Every structure is written in structure tokens, then in C-alpha cells.
Amino acid sequence: MARDPDSVLKYLTEVEEQAEDILSDKQQIVDLDKRRNMNREALRAIKNGVAAPNKSKTWLNSGGMFIKLPSSAATDMLTTDQHYLDEEINSVRTKLHDKVNKMRDVEGQSDLKGFDLNALSKTELEGLQKSRLL
Length: 134
Prior knowledge:
About 65% of the residues lie in helices and about 10% in strands. It contains three helices and two strands, in the order αββαα. The mean pLDDT is about 85.
């Protein structure tokens, strides 16, 4: 039951490419999440007055440069970046599910059960609470 070395090499190459793609996406999620946490910490510092107590302007590090901005503009900028990061993380996670399933197909395994579940939306959760199912 010997296999052709070229087909084995092609199979292993395809599996390795899929695995590398999945690992790079996981690392991208970690990097984006770190940035999101730093933004959250900065927003909290501005809100509590830690960053610039009793001042209307705040120093902000953006792209390797320090910029002095009004606190409200800095908050708006960080909030906008938070929304962008949330969307980007969700997008990468969605693509990651598809890539994992594709790799499992290449390996000849069945799709993971329950891997494609999504959390309830706020309106769905409120509907369940109103109907007293939760």
C-alpha cells in the first residue's frame, strides 16, 4: 500500500500551508487584542483623569509620535479605534473558522461540531429574558 512520494509531498505541503495560515491568523488576533486592551486602558485613564488631571488636553502616542490633543478628541479617536479593532477581530475569527474547516477537509476529517456557534445578539437575549426562558 505504498503511496506516490509526489502525492504525499503535495498533501503535506497543503496541510502545512493551511496550518501556517491558521497560526498567523491566531497571532493576528492576539496582536489586535493587545492593542484593544491598551486602547481600553488609555480610555479609562482619560476618563478617570489619570492621564492629565485637571487639564483639557492629553498626550497621545499615535504611530510612534506623541500628539497633544483635547481630551474629548483623544477619547473620540480611541473609541473609533476600539470599534475598528472589534470589527477586525471578529472578521479574522470568522475567517479562522472557515480555514480550520478547510484544513480538516484536507486532512480527511469531519467538520468540528459546535465550532460555528454565534453568541446571542442583544435583542435576542432581551427577547428570551422577556419570555422568561432565561
